Amino acid sequence: MYGKGLLKGLGVTFVRFFNTYWEDLTWMWRRVTTGEKRYHSAEGIAHRSSKNTRGIFTVQYPEEKLPVPEEFRYIPFLVYDEGADGAKEIRCTSCGICSKVCPPQCIWIVRGTDPSTGRPKPQPAEFYIDADICMNCGFCAEYCPFDAIKMDHDYELASYTRTLLPMEKLMKPASYYAEIRPLNAAREDEARKAKEAAKAAKAEAAAA
Amino acid sequence: MTTPASVSTVDLAARFPGIVSADSRPGYSGWIINADKLIEVATAIRDEFGYDLLSSVTGVDYPADGKMEVVYHAFKTTGGSIFVFKVQMPRDDPVVSSLVPVWKGAELQEREAWDLLGIKFTNHPDLRRILMWEGFEGHPLRKDWKEPFYEEELKPFKSRWPDGKHTIAEAKNPFRDNVQFPVGFDPEKYTFEDPEQALYTSLRKYQSEDKDGIKTDHILVNMGPQHPSTHGVFRAVVMLDGEDIVSLKPVMGYLHRNHEKIGERNTFLQNMPYTDRLDYFNSMSNNFGYALAVEKLMGIQVAERADYIRVIMAELTRIQNHLIWAGMMLNDLGAMYTPALYAFEERELILDIFEATAGSRMMCNYFRFGGVARDMTEDALRKTRELVHDRLPGKVDEMDRLLTDNEVLVSRLKGMGYLSAEDAINTSMTGPMLRASGVPYDIRRADPYSVYDRFEFDVVSRPEGDMYARYLVRIEEMRQSLKILEQALKQIPAGPILSGKPQYQVKIQPGEAYGRVEAPKGELGYYIVSNGKPNPYRYHVRAPSFINLTSLEMLCVGEKIADFVAILGAVDIVLGELDR
Description:
The complex is a heterodimer. Chain A is of the alpha+beta class. Chain A has seven helices and seven strands; from the N terminus they run ααββαββαββαβαα. In chain A, a hairpin with a 6-residue loop joins strand 3 and strand 4. Chain A is elongated, with a radius of gyration of 25 Å. The mean pLDDT of chain A is about 90. Chain B contains 20 helices and 17 strands. In chain B, strand 13 (about 365-370) and strand 14 form a beta hairpin. In chain B, helix 10 (about 340-360) runs antiparallel to helix 11. The model of chain B is unreliable at about 1-10 (pLDDT under 50). The chains are: A alpha+beta, B alpha+beta. At the A-B interface, helix 1, helix 3, strand 3, strand 4 and helix 4 of A face helix 7, helix 10, helix 11 and helix 12 of B.
């Protein structure tokens, strides 16, 4: 019969159409019974990005925001540890690996010098990331041997001018890093502690 | 996987003594043919030895030897490994006869080699620039050509560390823009010459003057570059007789950024995120091909778990590509958005897996030499399993139910844009385009890479050679991808995800390698020449979107202008890859 295929296709769109309202009705019932909402709620967004999703699929940004997974990467930032008196102990040693590995070459580092001796010291004097050039590849974070540069989760960086990020804007505390990437931070902390312990043991053995 | 591109058992030197010699440079393979006998030998390669598919044509510039080289890669459509042959010419006058009479598939690629390297191909039917505009000064892929923002020959640049005071690239250019004028250019004396003249002249030959005693003329129509149906900034100049297409020329390069020159400035690893930006729908496939090529050069194994993860990612990306293709195809046919948005739902769920694993939805940058960047978490694997087992099969069926029998769709696609098997092979079609013309050629089966030899799946092929066949092939391919995914998810072993240590500066022996994968759009090949330095000496991408357009005129001639949009859609192009 001519038109059978058309009707079959229309059947698919009708099921979709029906599902949209059916889905909203069931969530209305859920809201009454369990208090869960389909829109503007974490469980609703999780449902809409699960394998069971049907009906309205979109997330109403910016009122609703999809949670980003831990591995999500955006413009990098510099991690600092908080010292005893609130001092910012930056982890970066200005070794320059990140600026060498950076594909679009958007990292500029001025190596720090000790004013008393004039020799280089393991700390950056200046550190720039040109956010307009950065391609968010994550190589800097991946190959940094000191866990000093990490990828951020903050993706709302739209601006009217070019965005050059100097060191002050790039520095964020280690606690922030642990907050956005808990699993990674815990794993790296452990590895660093093990390394330090091994170093200490070695030094002890050498002393003895 | 790690075996170097082998010179097959064919002994070309014995067949053509004195004309052909084996390439004996360390790390290189293949045959070097005398430039003046190229056509004769190439015909023999095609007809006697059976290498009927000319996959890639590109040039390499060797200023130190004063030579220019054209490298050809050919394959048998019945399967098997690569066949490489080359022609060498003096660098100051690189002229070679065109292979278009033997393989039409060389047409666009030879134009590209002329455009970017300045190699002249005699007897080429239409040797004009293709990616750069007419009137562009110089040939950018030559080693002595420098871009307007030129800083240093090779990355990493010395100005970044240890004394990296930030500067803006434009500040270095006197025009504060990405422009550069040739030496001795005088705007006062410049006379404007219409750069399109050559293009229009090449179409004018079809003009008819007299028809049934009435003087008629053909109409020239520019479709694009600003046209919603062209998937970006693609332009086709169409010559029309009434509504019928008489001839057509694709015009491209509006999104050209010279990916290959950037690639030659980069280190090997730095290229990885740039490959994401080729076919931005399928960054995983792009990564895959590049990683394979570099791994061949390095001669390293890939960790087994990583191989499985690679296959999972590549097949997921194929499913979302084909879904989007079906949706966009229907957009081109005028069924605006309903199928496209259905497809986007599934794509979104697949991209969620990429985001959780690779860190980014589209620009995945996930593959490393010898493995992948990070492991797939249990959570991501569970999500993938759920999708593959519970959701995607039903959704592919739903797309099938929605579209396949639809009478409007069938009447618009069936019998349109016909391409015979011979023409498809001759014009170097690959991927679904080739398989829809009745040639069951799938690199995953014909020349297996990674762990594809461990999976049970069918190579989908249809004999019809029309647009409907192209549609059916892609729908069925999604089912086969799901089949591969099911097996891969079942078999995936535990273990490391990188065969060596993570390193940002890889050591690579001098030599050449050609790595290719069956990307969703066709054969995606990377030809890399290394001279032992940390940066590739030559880096060439064999882009399926680009080469699949060689047959565009063939597909369109005789059809109506309204169908051009659908025919172009059925080829499945992405401008990021087409223009590179």
